[in-house]
Amino acid sequence: MAQRITTLIQDRLVVAVKTLYGADLTATDLPLSNTRKEFVGDFTVVVFPLTRVARKKPEEIGAEIGQYLLQHVPEIVDFNVIKGFLNLAVSPRYWQDYLSGIYSDTTFGIQPANGQKVLVEFSSPNTNKPLHLGHVRNILLGWSVSRILEAAGYKVFKVQIVNDRGIAICKSMLAWKKFGVGATPESTGMKSDHFVGDYYVRFEQEFQKEYQQWQASAAGQEIFRQHAKADESEATFFKGYKDQYFNQHSALGAEAQEMLRSWEQHDPATLELWKTLNNWVYAGFNATYDRLGVSFDKLYYESDTYLLGKDMVEKGLEKDVFYREPDNSVWIDLEDAKLDRKVVQRRDGTAVYITQDLGTAELRYEDFGVEKMVYVVADEQIYHFQVLFEILKRLGAPYASGLYHLAYGMVDLPTGKMKSREGTVVDADDLIDEVIAEAWENSRERGTIADLPEKEQAEVIEQIALAALKFFIIKVNPQKRMIFDPRESVDMQGTTGPYVQNAYVRIQSVLRKAGDEDLSAAAEYGTLEKEEQDLIAQLAQFPDLIQEAARNYDPSIIANYCYNLAKAYHRYYHDFSILKADSSAARAFRLQLSTAIANTLRNGMDMLGIAMPERM
Length: 616
Fold this sequence. Notes:
The protein is an alpha/beta fold. The protein contains 25 helices and 14 strands. It has helices at 2-21, 51-54, 58-72, 92-102, 133-151, 167-179, 185-188, 192-216, 218-227, 234-240, 242-248, 251-264, 268-292, 302-305, 310-318, 353-368, 382-394, 428-446, 454-474, 486-489, 497-514, 530-540, 542-552, 556-575, 584-607; strands spanning 32-34, 43-46, 76-82, 85-90, 117-121, 155-162, 298-301, 323-324, 330-333, 341-345, 372-378, 403-408, 411-412, 482-483. Strands 7-6-5-11-12 form a 5-stranded parallel sheet, sandwiched between helices. Mean pLDDT is 94; it is low at 417-423.
């Protein structure tokens, strides 16, 4: 219905412009927007661009088109022109009929299958530490984008590539081997991914001790004398020399690198240790994913994919997309795309990360045959994905035009940044626990669920806490860096998930009191209040906003829509009587309106991975 009225108006606008000015335009040339609240109307047409075809002032054009639409579109009952803006008012009867058609539709907004397939990659953690706050934003964005794409009609495949190999993983393995003394998650009572993460931190701590001692040694001082700049302090020099020390001088570094070589040579003992620690981490990851309500259709592992892409390098050489240097390394020149030159294969024939990503993209296309691939990865990797997508385009990959990097900003806490190697990272589980604690505190102050059994109270609190966490992160445009404040996230009066949940709970209370009532009397409701018409118009935006959010891979569009709809309903509930309306027609109509809003809030929040409680 919402699309029908906008489509109807745009189709008539095309005819109006042709009839009045002889110009052949399309509906896309005449976009509609929602009329701003300070003006009267439902939809607005900007007529300034028509001055070149009409050769008249914008005010005259607006008046002529408005009059034409008033005569030829029964749903348009009034218009006004303010400078170059034509505001159109839709018939209250149209909105009433619209509500009658959607209020009982529990799937309102969800659109039919469009026949297109899209793959969304998100999370993709390393197996040397638990999921942390940065992963939480990644996971919530990936999940909500997937749900929104499904609602927009796509067949969606949710995947992740687990970074389960490399020097970072070997650091955790080595630290456990040297310092673990046979400890296990079970023997220590620790969550298994936290257990492994502690050994990653332990490696860094032991490495720092070793590095400090070396700096004061004769060998360290000699390196400083030979390589430091004339005015460079020891602290500054050694801070920048850390990686070189790890690779060239460190005993721990040498052991970690030897362990990596043993893994690459398939040493049985090393592989067994690797599998043991990784399995501990996977169990921990899965527990966190379950808490967040997240799942995947397929997992890829870097240990399986790191050799992929070599065939694509050979094909690229055959097509002259790549070229070989005299030292046998293979490169691509992307300077014409302002992306510089990029190595795709080392001189010894080994792959680099970009090569692996080329192979993984091809493997996923073979697995799923998708038209689009969305990579949810922090904005630190923008250049990497620009290069990857450009290479796939030049290789002629059939999915190249559908590649998208959903780059998101970092998440900070009010106390500042996180650093995982130093052990100051905020683990996802600890963050969830903190938000749950805040939700309990909030609930005790209000006392609204104190009469429920303890188990049910805990379930409600978890729903509220997860809504707080998810909504607070998702409501921010992905491209923006953000600060997550656990206390602010549970504020029942703020722009929060619990605020939206509360609107839904309020409606459920109204509907329970109304019982199973026949609402056919709503058809006799005579005069819509402006607030009621505005609420129905707001509902009518929902299907189009789902498409917009899917098109832009931006869940904040849905989050903020849900908040604004909840806010409008809270205000309406305060200003108008529903169950004690002054007529049976008004009561029935307002129950229809409340039902439609509840369905819409539930569907919208479900796209964000947020459940709606019956009480809170």
